Design the sequence.
């Protein structure tokens, strides 16, 4: 029974890395397997940090592992003047989601997932979003980006709030390039955001607008450029859930599921470069943060520059709606489990704690 | 008219219990119909499930360090414990027999946790729907197991808090015997003052415990019921042992006082034993000594009614044991198998018993003279003040 729960618990704090180092059997073994494999580990004083059981991703109809890079490029067509038109359909829904094993949350979300779809486009593209409110409360979509007031998705301006059953179209040219987000701006704002109405909005730079080294950097920043250069891209939305509605989060996560990437570490090759789009939508707490273990990264605040705004750091903090791009690699590193987590220990121990599993070679 | 009369006169042919059962049967039909047709279904739509869990007891074990949490579902619907947090961190655990706890059933949650001696820890159970139930371990100490040493320690505690002070209080007997009639009335009302103070004290304590009782068992109602049970029982017993229209004999009254104080001390022992074993108070010498001095006045209360009666030392010792020994039993029970419902029931029985005794004391004083008289009332006030002042010594 106890050994069984250990495997079910699937987590331990600190133990994984030290065990890996001590035994030298890091390759291919996930930390949670190490935890489950050893009864001795379970019986020693202290138990294990983490949650019991597994989230049913199929019932949720989204999986944080897949969400890392499931870009939504929209329905692409070309306008007569040569401008790229991307059309999206976004539907606001009420949906019960499992945010930690066995813990359910009545979410409001876009397109049946929290966070909503990761919209990806290039600076200058025409973005046309048909928004349908199939939920039970009035909602909007407010984009962080440059657009007309009438397209801002706030109450009382333009289409204003979209009542249940109603719909509207938001349309604008994507700008500036960077790592952005969208969220519902209905009031009360706190409730509408924390219920799950948010998502990533990634605008790639257009390399043709730059020259020389800048053009090269811009090209590398695009989806195709990253793919060709062997850059492993991923999106992480830092969020939280106040399951008992007491104004404090019971669960913190990236991409919604507590401890998901502890149980399912993100594979990174020693030869990969990593680009991480990090967005903070956490309610109730003034800041959230990311700390990378045993490594350092360059940081591009808002992703709106081609040169880093912070160089060689291992911890970055963001206020709500702040976001940025992290670039790093594990070139020449010993393979193994490298942790990253919020460096508010409380957030980490309430679910925002993750592992990169570094393996030899390339994963992209 | 005549026909009706005839019918009613014939009615006794049917056995009487049929008439008694008919309303019950009708009640059954009404209840069944309500469940069957479920007219409130419409009202419940969109309502989240009602979840109510009560954490009754947390045992702290060392080697290995763990919390063993006893939890009761006091609500109307099953509750599923999804995850467990200790000090704002999700922690591995086991729930037996099942994560889903049916109404009025209990479960045990074992949490391997490196708890820190002497420091507080907060345990939170989070249910399927995200509702949280919290319990704070105020001072982490290893919960005593039911071994000889624990029994001895808790027993000693009971002796110090209950038996010794009551016994010492009884030594006022020779002094009481020499008092004049007026001062005897003073002393009887002094006893009444002590008892009223104790009754109030026990009531407050029981009300404070009430939230720890699972909702369906209604802690405060339990208190009222146990007060009623004790009061009615002792009135019946007291009435039977005395002839109609007469005061109970001094010895009977003294025994009733001892029983009342004994029941109260049982509840007090439960609370002390529980507080010690659950790590809710650091049991200081000051606290124990405070109780010792506080409870010495109880012994005086018992002998006050014996001023005009010669009682042997054996009888006196017996009275002392009736009043004091329950503290030992209480601290054993409280220390080893604490249950807040049980504590409330005993505290309530104590209050009921005390109310009956106060009634008897007042009747006795009235029979001896006037009740509303400065010296007599001064006795009552003095009794309460004595308890209040010595209670200051009980610093928990």
Sequence:
């Amino acid at each position: 029974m106890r050994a069984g729960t250990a495997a079910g618990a699937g987590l331990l704090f600190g133990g994984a890395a030290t065990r890996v180092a001590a035994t030298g059997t890091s390759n291919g073994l996930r930390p949670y397997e190490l935890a489950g494999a050893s009864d001795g580990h379970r019986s020693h004083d202290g138990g294990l940090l983490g949650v019991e059981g597994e989230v049913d991703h199929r019932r949720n109809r989204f999986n944080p592992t897949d969400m890392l890079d499931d870009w939504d490029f929209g329905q692409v067509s070309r306008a007569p003047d040569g401008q790229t038109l991307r059309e999206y359909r976004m539907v606001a829904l009420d949906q019960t989601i499992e945010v930690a094993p066995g813990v359910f949350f009545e979410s409001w979300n876009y397109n049946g997932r929290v966070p909503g779809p990761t919209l990806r486009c290039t600076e200058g593209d025409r973005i046309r979003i048909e928004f349908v409110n199939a939920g039970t409360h009035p909602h909007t979509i407010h984009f962080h980006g440059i657009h007309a007031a009438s397209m801002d998705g706030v109450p009382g301006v333009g289409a204003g709030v979209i009542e249940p059953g109603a719909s509207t179209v938001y349309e604008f040219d994507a700008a500036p390039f960077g790592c952005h987000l969208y969220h519902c701006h209905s009031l009360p704002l706190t409730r509408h955001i924390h219920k799950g109405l948010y998502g990533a909005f990634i605008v790639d730079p257009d390399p043709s607008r730059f020259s020389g080294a800048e053009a090269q950097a811009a090209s590398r920043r695009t989806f195709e450029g990253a793919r060709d250069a062997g850059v492993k891209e991923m999106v992480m939305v830092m969020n939280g859930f106040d399951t008992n509605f007491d104004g404090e989060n019971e669960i913190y996560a990236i991409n919604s599921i507590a401890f998901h990437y502890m149980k399912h570490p993100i594979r990174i090759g020693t030869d990969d470069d990593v680009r991480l789009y990090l967005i903070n939508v956490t309610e109730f707490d003034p800041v959230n943060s990311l700390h990378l273990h045993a490594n350092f990264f360059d940081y591009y605040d808002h992703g709106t520059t081609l040169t880093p705004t912070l160089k060689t750091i291992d911890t970055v903090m963001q206020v709500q709606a702040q976001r940025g791009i992290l670039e790093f690699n594990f070139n020449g590193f010993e393979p193994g489990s490298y942790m990253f987590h919020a460096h508010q220990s409380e957030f980490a121990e309430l679910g925002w704690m993750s592992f990169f599993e570094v393996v030899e070679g390339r994963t992209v | 008219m005549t026909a009706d009369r005839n019918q009613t006169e014939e009615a006794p042919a049917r056995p009487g219990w049929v008439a008694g059962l008919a309303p019950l049967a009708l009640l059954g039909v009404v209840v069944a119909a309500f469940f069957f047709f479920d007219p409130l279904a419409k009202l419940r739509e969109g309502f989240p499930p009602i979840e109510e869990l009560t954490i009754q007891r947390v045992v702290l074990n060392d080697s290995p360090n763990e919390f063993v949490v006893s939890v009761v579902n006091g609500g109307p619907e099953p509750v599923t414990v999804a995850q467990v947090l200790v000090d704002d961190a999700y922690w591995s655990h086991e729930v037996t027999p099942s994560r889903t706890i049916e109404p009025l059933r209990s479960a045990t949650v074992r949490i391997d946790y490196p708890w820190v001696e002497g420091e507080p820890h907060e345990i939170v159970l989070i249910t399927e729907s995200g509702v949280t139930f919290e319990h704070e371990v105020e001072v982490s100490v290893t919960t005593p197991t039911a071994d000889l040493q624990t029994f001895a320690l808790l027993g000693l505690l009971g002796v110090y808090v209950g038996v010794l002070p009551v016994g010492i209080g009884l030594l006022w007997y020779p002094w009481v015997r020499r008092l004049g009639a007026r001062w005897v009335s003073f002393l009887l009302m002094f006893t009444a003052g002590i008892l009223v103070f104790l009754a109030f004290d026990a009531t407050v304590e029981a009300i404070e415990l009430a939230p720890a009782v699972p909702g369906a068992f209604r802690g405060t109602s339990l208190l009222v019921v146990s007060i009623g049970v004790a009061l009615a029982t002792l009135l019946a017993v007291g009435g039977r042992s005395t002839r109609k229209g007469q005061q109970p004999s001094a010895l009977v009254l003294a025994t009733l006082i001892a029983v009342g104080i004994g029941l109260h001390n049982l509840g007090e022992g439960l609370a002390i034993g529980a507080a010690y074993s659950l790590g809710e108070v650091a049991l200081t010498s000051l606290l124990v000594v405070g109780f010792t001095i506080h409870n010495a006045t109880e012994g005086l209360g018992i002998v006050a009614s014996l001023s005009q009666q010669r009682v042997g030392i054996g009888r006196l010792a017996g009275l002392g044991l009736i009043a004091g020994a329950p503290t030992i039993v209480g601290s054993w029970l409280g220390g080893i198998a604490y249950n807040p419902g049980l504590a409330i029931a005993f505290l309530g029985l104590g209050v009921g018993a005390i109310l009956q005794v106060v009634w008897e004391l007042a009747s006795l004083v009235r029979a001896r003279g006037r009740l509303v008289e400065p010296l007599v009332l001064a006795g009552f006030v003095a009794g309460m003040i004595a308890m209040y002042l010595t209670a200051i010594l009980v610093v928990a």
Summary: The radius of gyration of chain A is 21 Å. The first helix of chain A runs from residue 2 to 9. The longest strand of chain A covers residues 84-100. Chain A is about 20% helix and 35% strand.
